[in-house]
């Protein structure tokens, strides 16, 4: 199992951040380490509040990518609604491709489509 400060882990994170750097002005980016793996949080700075999360377990070679719509309640507490999840992305190139698709609305379109079908065919 790779540790959070291993060379392999740091190279993966650095490579991912370097390749996603072009969208840095649209997101605030946070990196967190956990016992099971690491996660990058991309919080959009636009009118449509969305959080995109990349997670990489130390024990696996795959990545997961998920996106959440952020709602603020009257109590100023944030509530998250998952829009999209892909938890078997095999490599960094596929992760970058999937990130771009989500960035350009794949998650929102997929969520709207699912809601339409659920409401139309209960």
What does this structure look like?
The chain is an alpha+beta fold and 122 residues long. It has one domain. It has three helices and five strands; from the N terminus they run αβββββαα. The protein is globular, with a radius of gyration of 16 Å.
Highlighted features:
122 residues; alpha+beta; 3 helices; 33% helix
Beta-strand content bin: 35-45%
Q: Indicate the radius of gyration in whole angstroms.
A: 16 Å
Quick one: how many beta strands?
5
- Give the neighbour order of strands across the main sheet: 1-2-3-4-5
Helix content: 25-40%
Mean pLDDT score, rounded? 82
User: What are the secondary-structure elements, in order, as H or E?
Assistant: HEEEEEHH
Largest sheet data: 5 strands, antiparallel
Q: Span between N and C termini?
A: 44 Å
Present the secondary structure layout.
Elements: H1 7-19, E1 27-33, E2 37-44, E3 50-57, E4 63-72, E5 78-89, H2 92-103, H3 106-120
Antiparallel strand pairs: 1-2, 2-3, 3-4, 4-5
Give a quick rundown of the structure.
This protein has about 120 residues and is an alpha+beta fold.
